[in-house]
Design goal:
The complex is a heterodimer of chains A (109) and B (114). With 109 residues, chain A is mainly beta. Chain A has strands at residues 9-13, 18-23, 32-38, 45-50, 55-56, 61-64, 70-75, 84-91, 103-108. In chain B, strands 2, 4, 5, 6, 9, 10 and 11 form a 7-stranded mixed β-sheet that branches. A 4-stranded antiparallel β-sheet of chain B has the order 1-3-8-7, with no helix packed on it. The model of chain B has no long low-confidence stretch (mean pLDDT 93). Classes of the chains: A mainly beta (109), B mainly beta (114).
Chain lengths: 109, 114
Protein backbone atom coordinates (compact mmCIF):
# COMPACT_ATOMS: atom_id res chain seq x y z
CA UNK A 1 0.00 0.00 0.00
CA UNK A 2 1.22 3.50 -0.84
CA UNK A 3 2.14 5.64 2.18
CA UNK A 4 0.59 9.08 2.44
CA UNK A 5 1.60 12.25 4.25
CA UNK A 6 -0.93 15.00 4.93
CA UNK A 7 -0.74 18.05 7.21
CA UNK A 8 -2.42 17.41 10.54
CA UNK A 9 -4.48 20.57 10.29
CA UNK A 10 -5.17 23.60 8.11
CA UNK A 11 -7.20 26.78 8.42
CA UNK A 12 -9.06 28.76 5.83
CA UNK A 13 -11.28 31.80 5.73
CA UNK A 14 -14.82 31.41 4.51
CA UNK A 15 -15.32 31.98 0.76
CA UNK A 16 -11.60 31.65 0.04
CA UNK A 17 -10.01 28.78 -1.91
CA UNK A 18 -8.38 25.95 0.02
CA UNK A 19 -5.58 23.73 -1.24
CA UNK A 20 -5.18 20.50 0.72
CA UNK A 21 -1.91 18.70 -0.13
CA UNK A 22 -1.12 15.01 -0.03
CA UNK A 23 2.23 13.37 -0.59
CA UNK A 24 2.17 9.79 -1.87
CA UNK A 25 5.69 9.26 -3.18
CA UNK A 26 5.44 5.43 -3.12
CA UNK A 27 2.32 5.31 -5.27
CA UNK A 28 2.22 2.66 -7.98
CA UNK A 29 1.39 3.40 -11.59
CA UNK A 30 -2.11 1.94 -11.32
CA UNK A 31 -3.15 3.40 -7.96
CA UNK A 32 -6.08 5.76 -8.16
CA UNK A 33 -6.04 8.69 -5.72
CA UNK A 34 -9.25 8.96 -3.72
CA UNK A 35 -10.33 11.75 -1.40
CA UNK A 36 -12.99 11.42 1.26
CA UNK A 37 -14.03 13.79 4.01
CA UNK A 38 -15.60 13.28 7.41
CA UNK A 39 -17.80 15.92 8.96
CA UNK A 40 -17.92 16.00 12.78
CA UNK A 41 -19.64 12.95 14.29
CA UNK A 42 -20.56 11.55 10.87
CA UNK A 43 -19.28 8.83 8.56
CA UNK A 44 -16.87 9.75 5.76
CA UNK A 45 -18.23 10.78 2.38
CA UNK A 46 -16.71 10.54 -1.08
CA UNK A 47 -15.27 13.74 -2.54
CA UNK A 48 -13.37 12.93 -5.72
CA UNK A 49 -10.87 10.52 -7.28
CA UNK A 50 -8.49 10.43 -10.24
CA UNK A 51 -5.58 8.61 -11.86
CA UNK A 52 -3.44 11.02 -13.87
CA UNK A 53 -5.42 13.92 -15.21
CA UNK A 54 -6.87 16.69 -13.12
CA UNK A 55 -10.48 16.06 -12.19
CA UNK A 56 -13.38 18.34 -11.37
CA UNK A 57 -16.80 17.74 -9.86
CA UNK A 58 -19.41 19.81 -8.09
CA UNK A 59 -17.63 19.46 -4.74
CA UNK A 60 -13.98 19.99 -5.56
CA UNK A 61 -11.09 19.74 -8.00
CA UNK A 62 -8.21 17.29 -7.82
CA UNK A 63 -4.82 18.34 -9.17
CA UNK A 64 -2.37 15.45 -9.64
CA UNK A 65 1.33 16.13 -10.08
CA UNK A 66 2.88 14.97 -13.31
CA UNK A 67 5.05 12.40 -11.49
CA UNK A 68 1.96 11.40 -9.43
CA UNK A 69 3.92 11.60 -6.18
CA UNK A 70 1.62 14.24 -4.81
CA UNK A 71 -1.86 15.61 -5.29
CA UNK A 72 -3.88 18.58 -4.11
CA UNK A 73 -7.57 18.75 -3.32
CA UNK A 74 -8.94 22.18 -4.14
CA UNK A 75 -12.08 23.62 -2.60
CA UNK A 76 -12.79 26.69 -4.69
CA UNK A 77 -14.77 28.63 -2.10
CA UNK A 78 -14.69 27.23 1.41
CA UNK A 79 -17.88 27.35 3.44
CA UNK A 80 -18.43 26.60 7.10
CA UNK A 81 -19.91 23.28 6.04
CA UNK A 82 -16.56 22.27 4.55
CA UNK A 83 -14.98 22.05 8.00
CA UNK A 84 -14.06 18.37 8.21
CA UNK A 85 -11.22 15.85 8.21
CA UNK A 86 -10.02 15.19 4.67
CA UNK A 87 -8.48 11.84 3.78
CA UNK A 88 -6.21 11.16 0.81
CA UNK A 89 -6.19 7.46 -0.15
CA UNK A 90 -4.13 5.91 -2.97
CA UNK A 91 -5.82 2.67 -3.93
CA UNK A 92 -5.25 -0.15 -6.37
CA UNK A 93 -7.44 -2.92 -7.72
CA UNK A 94 -8.59 -5.28 -5.00
CA UNK A 95 -7.10 -3.28 -2.12
CA UNK A 96 -9.02 -2.12 0.91
CA UNK A 97 -9.31 1.57 1.70
CA UNK A 98 -6.86 2.83 4.35
CA UNK A 99 -8.08 5.91 6.19
CA UNK A 100 -5.12 7.54 7.96
CA UNK A 101 -5.41 10.52 10.33
CA UNK A 102 -6.10 12.96 7.45
CA UNK A 103 -6.08 16.76 7.55
CA UNK A 104 -8.46 18.59 9.85
CA UNK A 105 -9.71 21.69 8.01
CA UNK A 106 -11.08 24.58 10.03
CA UNK A 107 -13.04 27.29 8.22
CA UNK A 108 -13.16 30.70 9.87
CA UNK A 109 -16.15 33.00 9.32
CA UNK B 1 -33.97 7.52 -0.23
CA UNK B 2 -31.26 4.91 -0.57
CA UNK B 3 -28.66 4.71 2.11
CA UNK B 4 -27.16 2.98 5.10
CA UNK B 5 -28.70 2.94 8.53
CA UNK B 6 -26.93 2.06 11.74
CA UNK B 7 -28.50 1.51 15.10
CA UNK B 8 -28.39 2.39 17.84
CA UNK B 9 -26.67 5.77 17.72
CA UNK B 10 -25.24 5.22 21.20
CA UNK B 11 -24.68 1.88 22.91
CA UNK B 12 -23.50 1.07 26.40
CA UNK B 13 -21.79 -2.18 27.25
CA UNK B 14 -21.19 -3.69 30.64
CA UNK B 15 -18.08 -5.66 31.42
CA UNK B 16 -18.24 -9.21 30.06
CA UNK B 17 -21.23 -8.48 27.84
CA UNK B 18 -21.57 -9.09 24.10
CA UNK B 19 -23.32 -6.36 22.12
CA UNK B 20 -24.50 -6.29 18.52
CA UNK B 21 -24.42 -3.25 16.25
CA UNK B 22 -26.88 -3.16 13.39
CA UNK B 23 -26.09 -2.10 9.81
CA UNK B 24 -28.67 -2.15 7.00
CA UNK B 25 -28.35 -0.88 3.42
CA UNK B 26 -30.92 -0.50 0.64
CA UNK B 27 -28.43 0.39 -2.09
CA UNK B 28 -28.34 -3.17 -3.48
CA UNK B 29 -24.61 -3.24 -2.85
CA UNK B 30 -22.73 -6.53 -2.73
CA UNK B 31 -19.90 -5.41 -0.44
CA UNK B 32 -20.17 -4.24 3.16
CA UNK B 33 -17.56 -3.15 5.70
CA UNK B 34 -17.10 -2.42 9.38
CA UNK B 35 -14.58 0.15 10.62
CA UNK B 36 -13.53 1.29 14.05
CA UNK B 37 -12.47 4.90 14.78
CA UNK B 38 -10.77 6.02 17.97
CA UNK B 39 -10.67 9.72 18.93
CA UNK B 40 -8.41 11.76 16.67
CA UNK B 41 -7.50 8.72 14.60
CA UNK B 42 -8.30 7.40 11.16
CA UNK B 43 -10.51 4.39 10.45
CA UNK B 44 -9.37 0.80 10.91
CA UNK B 45 -11.00 -2.08 9.05
CA UNK B 46 -12.55 -4.77 11.27
CA UNK B 47 -14.35 -7.08 8.80
CA UNK B 48 -15.63 -6.92 5.27
CA UNK B 49 -17.96 -9.01 3.15
CA UNK B 50 -17.93 -9.27 -0.62
CA UNK B 51 -21.08 -11.33 -0.91
CA UNK B 52 -23.79 -12.99 1.15
CA UNK B 53 -22.55 -15.80 3.42
CA UNK B 54 -18.93 -14.75 2.98
CA UNK B 55 -16.73 -12.39 4.99
CA UNK B 56 -13.05 -11.73 5.65
CA UNK B 57 -11.08 -10.38 8.58
CA UNK B 58 -9.69 -6.90 8.32
CA UNK B 59 -6.78 -5.44 10.27
CA UNK B 60 -8.30 -5.61 13.75
CA UNK B 61 -10.80 -8.51 13.79
CA UNK B 62 -9.88 -9.92 17.21
CA UNK B 63 -12.74 -9.63 19.67
CA UNK B 64 -15.34 -9.04 16.95
CA UNK B 65 -17.64 -11.28 14.91
CA UNK B 66 -19.95 -10.69 11.96
CA UNK B 67 -22.55 -12.47 9.85
CA UNK B 68 -23.90 -11.84 6.37
CA UNK B 69 -27.08 -13.86 5.99
CA UNK B 70 -28.83 -11.23 3.86
CA UNK B 71 -27.49 -8.86 1.24
CA UNK B 72 -28.98 -5.88 3.08
CA UNK B 73 -27.63 -6.63 6.55
CA UNK B 74 -24.17 -6.93 8.10
CA UNK B 75 -24.37 -6.94 11.92
CA UNK B 76 -21.26 -6.64 14.06
CA UNK B 77 -20.96 -8.27 17.47
CA UNK B 78 -18.47 -6.85 19.92
CA UNK B 79 -17.61 -9.76 22.20
CA UNK B 80 -16.33 -9.76 25.75
CA UNK B 81 -12.94 -10.69 24.31
CA UNK B 82 -12.59 -7.14 22.97
CA UNK B 83 -10.96 -5.49 25.99
CA UNK B 84 -11.09 -1.92 24.76
CA UNK B 85 -14.33 -1.58 22.80
CA UNK B 86 -15.00 2.11 23.41
CA UNK B 87 -14.94 3.69 19.94
CA UNK B 88 -17.00 5.03 17.05
CA UNK B 89 -18.10 2.19 14.74
CA UNK B 90 -18.82 2.87 11.09
CA UNK B 91 -20.49 0.62 8.56
CA UNK B 92 -20.05 1.13 4.83
CA UNK B 93 -21.10 -0.49 1.58
CA UNK B 94 -19.97 -0.45 -2.04
CA UNK B 95 -21.00 -2.14 -5.25
CA UNK B 96 -18.05 -4.50 -4.89
CA UNK B 97 -14.60 -4.67 -3.35
CA UNK B 98 -12.49 -5.21 -6.43
CA UNK B 99 -12.97 -2.16 -8.62
CA UNK B 100 -12.27 0.71 -6.19
CA UNK B 101 -15.96 1.46 -5.98
CA UNK B 102 -17.06 4.41 -3.88
CA UNK B 103 -17.85 3.47 -0.30
CA UNK B 104 -21.00 4.86 1.29
CA UNK B 105 -20.98 5.21 5.04
CA UNK B 106 -23.66 5.08 7.69
CA UNK B 107 -23.96 7.65 10.51
CA UNK B 108 -22.07 5.45 12.99
CA UNK B 109 -22.65 3.93 16.42
CA UNK B 110 -20.78 5.21 19.44
CA UNK B 111 -20.03 2.38 21.90
CA UNK B 112 -19.20 3.15 25.49
CA UNK B 113 -18.22 0.77 28.28
CA UNK B 114 -19.86 1.20 31.68
Amino acid sequence: DAKTTQPNSMESNEEEPVHLPCNHSTISGTDYIHWYRQLPSQGPEYVIHGLTSNVNNRMASLAIAEDRKSSTLILHRATLRDAAVYYCIPLNYGQNFVFGPGTRLSVLP
Amino acid sequence: DGGITQSPKYLFRKEGQNVTLSCEQNLNHDAMYWYRQDPGQGLRLIYYSQIVNDFQKGDIAEGYSVSREKKESFPLTVTSAQKNPTAFYLCASSMDTKYQETQYFGPGTRLLVL
